[in-house]
Amino acid sequence: MRKGESIVAHFDWALFVVYIILLIMGVSTVYSTAYNEDHPNLFDFSQKYGKQVLWVGFSLFLGLLVFLIDSDIYRKFSIPIYLFTLILLVVVLFMPPVNGARAWLGIGSLGIQPAEFSKIGTALLLARFISSVNIKQQNVRTVILANAIILIPMVMVLLQPDAGTFVVFTSFLFVMYREGITYDPIILKMLNSIPGIKFKETWVGTHFIPLLFIVVFLSLVTLLMSNETLTFETFPDLKIPGFGIVMMSLTILAILSFLVLRFISSRRDRNRVVLIVIIGFILASGLVSTVNFGFQSLAEHQKDRIELFLGLKEDPDGEDYNRNRAMAAVGSGGFLGKGYNKASVSSVESNHVPESETDFIFCPFAEEWGFIGTIIFIVLYMFMLLRILFIAERQRSSFNRIYAYSVAMILFYHFAINIGMNIGFAPVIGIPLPFFSYGGSSMMSFSMMMFILLKLDSQRREDLQ
Amino acid sequence: MNLDGRKYVIIIVTLLVGIIYSMRLFYMQVVDETWTLRAQEIAEKRKEITPPRGVLFDRNKRKIVSNRTYFNLMMKESEMKNFDTVAFAKLIGWTREEVRERFKEIVKGEGTYRNKHTGVRSSNYQKIRAYPFLKEMTLEEIATIAAHLEDFPGFYEEVTSMRSYPYANGANIVGYLSEVYREEIDEDPFYKPGNNMGRAGLERFYENELRGRKGIKYIVTSALNNAIESYADGKYDTIAKQGPPLNLGIDIILQAYGEKLLANKRGCIVAIEPATGEILALVSAPTYDPNLFIGKRNISKNYPKLLADPSKPLYPRPLAAEYPPGSTFKLLNSLIGLQEGVITPESGFPCNKSVVGCHNHPSAGNLADAIKHSCNPYFYAVTRKILQQNKEKSVFHDAEIGLNIWAKYMHSFGLGHNLETDITGLRPGSIPDANYYDKWYGHHRWAFSTIRSISIGQGEVMLTPLQMANIAAIIANRGWYYTPHFVKSIGSDGPLEQFRKKHYSMVDAKHYSVIVEGMRRVVHEGGGTGRRARLKDIIVCGKTGTVQNPHGDDHSVFVAFAPMYKPKIAIAVFIENAKGGGGLWAAPTAGLMIEKYLTRKIMEKDREKTILEANFSGIK
């Protein structure tokens, strides 16, 4: 820090303000959801909202601490931090299980979930490893070591078991992809070991991670939509199957992106953009059709198995309980919502949607604020993610950039999975919605993650080019 | 290696998810209605509030059917904690095994659901749902239990309403309530399991009025089925409305007196106010105490017993029993004869016992005296003149025409078909016409001589006591009647449309006076067959009947009205297997009823004593 310069001289206010807005929205949703008539005070610490306020306060205090410490410490101490979170992940396995998982360290509501903090440790160490000098991205050893850094905590959380966090750890693959560490070297090595074959690069191997993500995402959407039918009250004979809705949405998406990209791209790129959109649309339609008709042509028992896995069962009060109720809560919000504190399906008191103040916090929010609220929320979240990506790209040090990408991708995964399961686009995997869900561990860990990023960013000019 | 392009891949993936989610949210929240309906299904419950049934008043505003609060002991398994079977059994006075049995019964009985389409009964028992453990307890019964219920979480009392009968009379009129069957619930969405429905009598006929209007409360419920708050601040709620009271024409004091008189006998009394057609009393003997049919427990205990009783107390005799009217029928044959012009009031016929048996009396020189003496040969002659009017040469063809004319007259007296009285279980009786006898004897194979017993109300002629009383009312009115009915008004509305229409008999009013005079002589002149119905200060007009019964003792019949001018009451009394004719038992019973109704006191104490002590029930 240069002398005389304020500690917040290069502070990214935009990101901080979005973060604060999300916190306020989150706390107000927890307050409305868990509202207890006998304890109307928001700061009543016997209630969940009181505790949440406490966690927010504590998180902001932690953020301040993070800000007072020189940013260099995170790079220097990334190995001890990583190891410390690993140790916590080991210790937690010896704790008594809560709700069938050994995820809690400590007693009752004062416990913490080490899995939440291990993401920070992993992000820091991965940034340190990839940014270290003499790293060759195309080296098989680099690929294996980078994967090992994320694989160890992944195995630990799976032992708890915590499938949600396990999936979230795969977000680091996107970070590695951005940094050029892909599975391509391994694939090349295997391919080139076959006599007569000599590849320099495979396109699929390089772009494997985003491709896999898009394929899995679109397939899930297609499958989960396959048991929905759109009917209209005014035209009872008109029934649009889920596949039709998916295809319609893809077409709308293609037209929209075509228009937008045409508008923003330069004249030189225009033809290329058109080609990319057309190819993308054809590929996506092909994938969706293959998944849909492939699924339809499966034998009944195979279909059953897949539906069971996805939580798609006909009986709305049986296998599909959580997803169905969550969707009813979100969908019943309508355009304008039912009004603050008026959620009838997803309030904690009514208990129709389990975990409506934690993993399903989006339900009461969507029910109370309707589409107006949810679109504002999505825009805010998108803004936050893109802002972090923007911040990442402006870093001089690759450590900072890699860490920023890690934060962006972790938050993106949480967003994609959590909202996905609230709107029936993802199977029910219990992970919190950052800055929204009730819970001390997630609130503190995501806040720390955010403040470390803000701190690194504010000191970005001191780093060597 | 140029990695710069990859940041765009990541941005596109991020944006793609955001855009697809936005589209999805737009679809779910704005386009698709499915989820709104599903949310209503999940969180909003329609709670129906069953109002108390309408109450029944007699003609003097005495409440004869009212409602009383009862209690169900409810249980909800999800809230039961540390249930002590022994202590609970002791509390409700059962054995431990009985308590366990009851739990099993609830799961297998109340806790099942029958599929409407397949008819398959499957288990639907839910721990979070409340089921009645004990039903229909009185305040006294629940009071001893309720004090200790806090030791048994999951058990609580719930208020329900049931009938009560301040007068234990008129069971066959008012009917009773019992729980609806599954089929009835399917048929009429008004009913829900556990609701009651009128099963007989007025409760059944006026079910739609008495049940009132259900209130509907929309509430937001939790996953545990607890009500949280009223939906939309009760904007869509409707208030339960009790059914309107039914004001009956019944005089419950007269009804009770009639039941008392017919104790230890089988038979009926029907009394009608001629001017209005309102039924004053409708006694069916033997009868039962309507209080025996309050609630499921009582019904299941008492119904089989009463059903098995050989004296058929559940059978509404005045409405459904079809009896030959005996000599009371002579009145109608006389009226038809007069209208057809085949006789005059001065016609005389000899009492020729070679035609048909008769008791000893001087031959009647006119119609009034013939009625007074109830001369059988006289009315044979009258009826022969009606049936054989010599319109055709062949006696068989002639009888066919005559009988059909006769039957038409009889129908105009409300016979041979159901009266549209406001009660169920009515029977039409029987008035034979030409077709009827053609089936018996063949076409043109019968004449008056074949079917002559209809002259004296025997043979194929059948009337219900209600029809007999209505005939008395027609004669009292000199030629017309309102359909006999029970309900004078429903709330503030008058009687049903069908009771405001006057029905005229085919006999002109002028012909009635001689019949009425004959009926006066029956009661008030020496040698009249109905002198035991005579009252001081009140002129009673009546006609006796003795119905020959091939299975046992004769039935005793009497129809009457009083006073002679501006009649207030028309009555029919039918006593089965009375040892003696109509004059001996039915006439004094009718006299007592008339006296009770018109004066409210009984002067003829000896007559009353005789009737009360008579026992024709076959059981000593």
Write the layout of secondary structure elements.
The complex is a heterodimer of chains A (465) and B (620).
Chain A: H1 13-33, H2 48-68, H3 72-76, H4 78-91, H5 114-131, H6 140-159, H7 163-169, H8 172-178, H9 184-193, H10 203-206, H11 208-225, E1 229-231, E2 239-241, H12 242-264, H13 270-296, H14 300-310, H15 321-331, H16 362-393, H17 398-422, H18 440-458
Antiparallel strand pairs in A: 1-2
Chain B: H1 6-31, H2 34-43, E1 44-49, E2 56-57, E3 63-76, H3 85-92, H4 96-108, E4 112-114, E5 121-123, E6 130-137, H5 139-146, E7 155-164, H6 171-174, E8 177-179, H7 182-187, E9 196-198, H8 201-205, H9 207-210, E10 215-221, E11 227-230, E12 246-248, H10 252-261, E13 267-273, E14 278-285, H11 295-308, H12 317-320, H13 330-340, H14 367-373, H15 376-387, H16 395-412, H17 434-441, H18 465-476, E15 480-482, E16 487-490, E17 502-504, H19 512-524, E18 541-547, E19 555-562, E20 569-575, H20 586-599, H21 605-613
Parallel strand pairs in B: 2-12
Antiparallel strand pairs in B: 1-10, 2-3, 3-6, 3-7, 4-5, 8-9, 10-11, 12-16, 13-14, 13-20, 15-17, 18-19, 19-20
Helix pairs in contact in B: 3-4, 10-20, 13-15, 14-19
Task: Determine the N-to-C terminus distance of chain B.
Answer: 119 Å
Contiguous helical run count of chain A: 18
Number of helices of chain B: 21
Tell me, what is the CATH class of the largest domain in chain B?
Alpha Beta
Please give the radius of gyration of chain B in angstroms: 34 Å
In total, the number of strands of chain B is 20
Strand pairing plus helix content of chain B: what structural class?
Answer: alpha+beta
Largest interface: A-B, 65 and 45 residues
Largest sheet of chain B: 6 strands, mixed
In the CATH hierarchy, what is the superfamily of the largest domain in chain B? DD-peptidase/beta-lactamase superfamily
* Proportion of residues in helical segments of chain A: 55-70%
β-sheet strand percentage of chain A? under 5%
Known CATH architecture of the largest domain in chain B: 3-Layer(aba) Sandwich
Overall pLDDT score of chain A: 85
Sheet with the most strands of chain A?
Answer: 2 strands, antiparallel
